[in-house]
Amino acid sequence: MDRPLLEVKNLTKYFSFQRGLFRKETFYLRAVDDVSFSLERKKTLGIVGESGCGKTTLGKTLVGLYKPDSGSITLTPDGKSIDMVNPKDDELKTIRKTIQMVFQDPQSSLNPRWPIRNIVGEPLEILKLTRGRKEKESRVIELLETVGLKPEHINRYPHEFSGGQRQRIGIARALASQPDLIVLDEPTSAVDVSVQAQVLNLLRDLQKERNMSYIFISHDLGVVHHMADEIAVQYLGQIVEYGDSEKVFNNPLHPYTKALLSALPVADPEFEAHKKRIILKGTLPNAINPPSGCRFHTRCQELVDEKRCKSECPMLREVEKDHKVACWIYD
Amino acid sequence: MKDKEILMEVKDLVTRFYTEDGVVKALEGVSFTLYKGETLALVGETGCGKSVTALSILRLLPISGKTLKGEVLFYDEETKARLKYNEKGPIPVLTLEPQDMLKLRGFGMSLITQDPMTSLNPVYTVGDQLMEVIKLHKKLPDNETKKLALKLLEDVELTPPEEIFNKYPHQLSGGQRQRIVISISLAAEPALIFADEPTTALDVTIQARVLELMQELKEEFQTSLILITHNLGIVAETSDRVGVMYAGRVVEVADKYTLFNRPLHPYTQGLIAAVPVITEKREELSYIPGTVPNLIHPPTGCRFHPRCPYATDICKEKIPELKAVETDDHFVECWNIDAVIKDLAEKGGAC
Q1: A292 within domain boundaries
Q2: Total domain count, chain A
């Protein structure tokens, strides 16, 4: 029983594609590169990073939408561990029941030709969680009410809802199988601030009620800070800092995390007036040919040992309790 | 503000869009004043009319849009001289002759758009697009036009400028593209720049530098800035004064410290409380119930009343006016402002 709900070790996902004359050369885009972490029950892990850092690929690999190239994902829903990379046939259903995902854009993740009854009811049907139409319908209504929608919404189509409501439908669908873990990929980036707060509150209440774990993927540090217990900062496919949320936010160790936090505009003018801003040079390098050594060295403001930073890739190491960082400064 | 010299006055702007679904009442009497040298942030959620305000003033609305009422007065003497506008008093922007308007966009005001991918022409080089604007407004000989274009590229930190000059937009990153748009907007040295969500398409670390650069250039070129954004963090970081918009009305105007520390309009209060910030951990976020109204059938009276905790009968009938409250530069439109202030006093002042 002591194993965490989800354990990820050395997870790697490359995308290959051909380029050049006659498409002879093969390139690899290293979207997720040697990522390890674990997630306990009832906890939220926030994954932050800028566009193109591989956050979404990581999320999709975790729910099984992509097959990883190497590494392991171990899920332990109830004492029995499941190898998610090579699951046995009968384990697949358990995985689907245990892990669900809420996608970034509710517009494209809800079938526009289906009424809500079908959208939310589909997982119930596929996983054979209800028997007969009546039971399914009452379950769907129950789910809609859980996320703050009304029973009469059951026959409506996605376009009849506002952005915030659509995201609630996505959440209801994810809740249908009573999962232990939900991967939330930028769940509020498509909605306005006043609605965002409603959705975030709903997610927190549901987590408490149903003892779920979340993996919360976002580029909005303020939102992640609000939601997460632990945080992983991703840069070009790798996790550069990982640890307790308060520790990472109050005492960022990696130069990239420091820059990211200092660049974030905070809705507090006094705080802004006294803040020291670190401006990174250059732009995000291409993930197809990432820089050698530490991938951040091309933009780093505190290169400690230039030769080493350029040639050797630092590993995540624990600098203080529950706080790991991959940087040669702390070697 | 050191010297409060008025640059532009916007009075009671009413703009409608005529669509197949009906008439969208996008702006319903927008009024505000802009002082010389300041950054005024217009903040609000999607569809509140922030961008439409800028487009109405610039007279760049799409064909379906029409400004029915209102007045925009532009007080800059230098712009008047450059436009060779000889009438007395301020420039009446909305009734200006088209050929004068063409000059005003450039000498007087310019626009930085949200998405540099769609505002730059993909089949012309950066240099061509920059020189087009300079030629139009400055009428310099060719070699000097190019010199100025290269200087502008250097001003926005695109180096080496000669190399960037010959590139096409798709060869540049998002941050670089936005810098090109900024350099184009500066080309004729306007008195006022509208920046419509200038960094929404950019990552946080790139955004930080672009915002800083805009501040520096604003000082260097001595322009004023109207910054349109939905991000309260950017407002706190870069603006001097803030106008909060909701459903086609400016509901509160104040300097940024006052606005964040003592917001008085119930909508502003709700908006600020709803944003999670990293400087404090809140258990529960407060939120504004309901959603932004549909502007084809907007609520009667104060457009915020269906979501407002202070709403009374009069709110449903009449739109309140923007009035100075507490200090002479804190404007709020609310019928029940006394109840709001009383509530704040009971809570101990801070919101």
Answers
A1: yes
A2: 1
Please give the helix or strand (H or E) that residue B28 lies within, else none: strand B22-35
- Please state, rounded to an integer, the average pLDDT across all residues of chain A: 91
Over residues A233-254, the pLDDT tens digits come to 999 999 999 999 999 999 999 9
Contact B235, B43 (CB under 8 A): yes
Please answer whether residues B247 and B62 qualify as being in contact, where contact means their C-beta atoms are separated by less than 8 angstroms. no
Q: Residue A258: inside a domain, yes or no? A: yes
A265 and B287: CB-CB below 8 Å? no
Q: How many CB pairs under 8 A join A and B?
A: 121
Instruction: Reply yes or no on domain B6-239 having CATH 3.40.50.300.
Output: yes
How do residues A194-205 score in pLDDT, each as one tens digit? 889 999 999 999
How remote is the C-alpha of B219 from its chain's centroid?
A: 18
Contact present, A157 and A115 (Cβ < 8 Å):
yes
Whether B271 and A194 have beta carbons less than 8 Å apart is answered as yes
Domain positions in chain B are 6-239, 246-346
- The ipTM value here is 0.83
Question: With an 8 Å Cβ cutoff, are A196 and B274 in contact?
Answer: yes
Q: Cis before residue B306, ω within 30 degrees of 0?
A: no
In a domain, A223, yes or no: no
Domain range enclosing A313: 239-331
Question: Is A265 in the B-facing interface, judged by CB distances under 8 Å?
Answer: yes
B231 → closest Cβ in A263, A265, A269: A265
In a domain, A117, yes or no: no
pLDDT, tens digit (0-9, with 9 covering 90-100), for A268-320:
888 888 888 888 887 788 888 889 899 999 999 888 888 899 999 999 999 99
Q: Which parts of chain B sit beneath pLDDT 50?
A: 1-2, 349, 351
Per the CB < 8 Å rule, is A268 touching B277?
yes
| B150: three-class secondary structure by DSSP | helix
Model-level pTM greater than 0.80? yes
Query: Strand (E) positions, chain A?
Result: 6-19, 25-39, 44-48, 70-75, 82-83, 99-102, 181-185, 213-218, 230-235, 238-244, 317-320, 323-325
